[in-house]
Amino acid sequence: MESIKRNRRALTIATLYVACILTADVLAARWIVSLPFGLAVPAGVFAVAPVFTLRDEIHERWGRRGAYLWIALASLCSWGLAVVVGSGLLARVTLASVVAFLVNEALDTEIYHKLRARSRLAAILGSNAVSAAVDSVLFIGVAFGLDWSLIAGQYVVKVALAGLVGWWVTR
Q1: How far apart are CA 32 and CA 38, in angstroms?
Q2: Who contacts 157 (Cβ-Cβ below 8 Å, separation ≥6)?
Q3: Which of 33, 59, 58 is closest to 45 using CA atoms?
Q4: Count of beta carbons in the 10 Å neighbourhood of residue 144
Q5: Per-residue confidence (pLDDT) for residue 143, from 0 to 100
Q6: What phi and psi, each to the nearest 5 degrees, are found at residue 127?
Q7: I need a surface site. Which of 3, 33, 81, 92 has the fewest CB within 10 A?
Q8: Start-end of H helices in 31-147
């Protein structure tokens, strides 16, 4: 019975992982949110921020190979969304998502794997801090052009939200 609960929880986490990515693609193409200090973010950042920590959870449950399997599956789903919508901002956002996602999720996975021996929270926070920077530059650059107020805003929100989710899953 415990094994069924554990497997159900793992599958729920992985499903949320993919759902957050697809939701973020749609939201990012629809709205830009103004932040204090002249920063702004695509609205999708609020849906994608938990992705780094969800992927860390997948890593915990299925290992490095499992993490890469779910990265590939989520990328295919995102690419499929781009194919379905065809052209326009949503297609560009989805393409940016796939490009940034493949790079930053692989980077996040490797950093998490290396830091995991220290502590789970250190691995979550350290891997998220680095991969969020790479993701912000790649995603914003491809989707909207190199807009530094969007890049900085996205980085700050991603790190803050990923840190909160990381704290929550490790407490």
Answers
A1: 13
A2: 35, 41, 45, 46, 49
A3: 33
A4: 18
A5: 92
A6: -70, -40
A7: 3
A8: 45-85, 89-115, 120-144
CA 82, CA 60: separation in Å to the nearest integer? 30
pLDDT at 1: 62
pLDDT for the residue numbered 19: 94
So what CATH class is 2-170?
A: mainly alpha
Reported residue count of the chain is 171
Q: Helices 89-115 & 45-85, crossing angle to 10 degrees?
A: 130
CA–chain centroid gap for 72, Å, is 13
| Predicted local confidence at residue 154, as pLDDT | 93
Residue 23 has a pLDDT of 93
Round to whole Å and give the CA distance between 25 and 41: 13
Rounded to whole angstroms, the Cα distance separating 9 from 54 reads: 12
Dihedral over alpha carbons 143, 148, 152, 155 (to 10 degrees): 30
> What pLDDT, on the 0 to 100 scale, is given for residue 32?
94
How far apart CA 58 and CA 117 sit, in angstroms, is 16
DSSP tag of 116: T
List, for the chain, all residue ranges whose pLDDT scores fall below the cut of 70. Answer: 1-4
Looking at residue 51, its amino acid is V
